[in-house]
Amino acid sequence: MHNLIHVLLLGLWLVFAERFSIEVLLVGIFGVILVALINKKLVEKIRLSIGLKSIPYFFEYLFILLYEIIKANIHVAMLVLSPKPKLSPSFVKHRISLKSDLHRTILANSITLTPGTLTVSMEDDEMLIHCLTEEFGKSIEETRFEKILMKLEELYYD
């Protein structure tokens, strides 16, 4: 199972690298080893919590994240390229029901990775998110990120 985490991290690196070459692969392998060594306790915790039941949720989450990133990129591009952009920057408070710091961090980072939104702070059960438009703020409530992370968290604590 320990090797599965390394393979998943390397796969994620290759997806985000945008191109494939021996250099990119070697940097990815070195990076995975370095991250695993620096975060040994976290990796051990993840290793214990990941089972075969969580793998479909991982891929579902990754698919939804990529879909949301592409959708938001198109929306932001349309806003920027429009002759009169209708920006309405605002801050949105979003209540979260996730318990573990790991899953909360994954949610906050996923929101930040999605263009047009930025997680500014996370205190107790509330996140403060900056949005380019009100529509982005409303879409945070509708996203499935948190639902999938809650399912993973249930597996994590069982």
From TrEMBL:
InterPro entries: Cation_antiport_E. GO terms for molecular function: antiporter activity; monoatomic cation transmembrane transporter activity. It is found in: Cell membrane. It holds the Pfam family MNHE. GO terms for cellular component: plasma membrane. Keywords: Antiport, Cell membrane, Membrane, Transmembrane, Transmembrane helix, Transport. It is a multi-pass membrane protein. It comes from the Bacteria. The chain crosses the membrane at residues 20-38, 58-81. Belongs to the CPA3 antiporters (TC 2.A.63) subunit E family. This is Multisubunit sodium/proton antiporter, MrpE subunit. The lineage of its organism: Bacteria, Bacillati, Bacillota, Tissierellia, Dethiosulfatibacter.
